[in-house]
Amino acid sequence: MIDNIELYKALAKARTEFTKVKFDSVNPHFKNKFASLASMHDATVDALSINGLTILQLPTDLDGRFALKTVLAHVSGASIETTLPMPPTKNDPQGIGSAMTYARRYSYAAILNIVGEPDDDGELASREPETITKTEAASLSKLIDSTDTDTAKVLGFYKIKSLDKLPKCQYAKVVKRFEEKANESATA
Question: How big, in percent rounded to 5, are the helix, strand and coil portions of the chain?
Fold first, then answer.
């Protein structure tokens, strides 16, 4: 078994040589700034290379779900790795690419212990998600009724008290599901 002492020494030295990570991107939903993967890479790659370190990021499978394996390797053969499950929001190339970029950025920052966004003291994580409008809720209600589905079961499934509490990010998927169900009923 290879000892990681040389890797840790090289990483400690490299960290003193990292340049400042620039918060060069803005989240369009929350309007907060964050460091892009390119910015983190630019701030660290030279120091890592000079100290015999490299980062590999590989898409992988974890219990049947998309995940990203991040490996910090040293010329001695020592390495540390982590695997981050990151289910895509949509199972198409765009959704997978988006999940991979997100996973790469977070994993890169985590394995090097660098900051990729300003600390918000958990503000964003504790915010209630944006919900659908009353008009969207009414339209969804009609669609659900057209499939003879019990609205209470839908509310229970999504753990909401009323349709207008459905997170906006789930609306298109729910509508599509019930449109498909309505079409199946119509052709049966």
Answer: 50, 20, 30
Asked whether 110 and 68 are in contact (CB, 8 A), the reply is: no
Ordered by start, the domain boundaries in the chain are 5-124, 128-187
Q: Count CB-CB contacts under 10 A for residue 72.
A: 21
Whether residue 34 contacts residue 21, with contact meaning beta carbons closer than 8 Å, is answered with no
Instruction: Convert the pLDDT of each residue in 122-158 to its tens digit.
Output: 555 556 678 888 999 899 899 889 888 888 888 888 7
In degrees, to the nearest 5, what angle opens at C-alpha 161 toward C-alphas 159 and 165? Answer: 85
pLDDT per position as a tens digit, 98-119: 888 889 999 999 999 998 765 5
Cα separation, 44 vs 48, whole angstroms: 6
In the chain, what is the straight-line distance between the N-terminal and C-terminal CA atoms, in Å? 62
User: Tokens in use for 13?
Assistant: 């030295």
Residue 85 to residues 65, 67, 103, 142, 169: CA-CA distances in angstroms?
Answer: 7, 4, 8, 36, 20
CATH number of the domain at 5-124, please?
3.30.160
Q: Considering the entire predicted model, what is its pTM?
A: 0.61
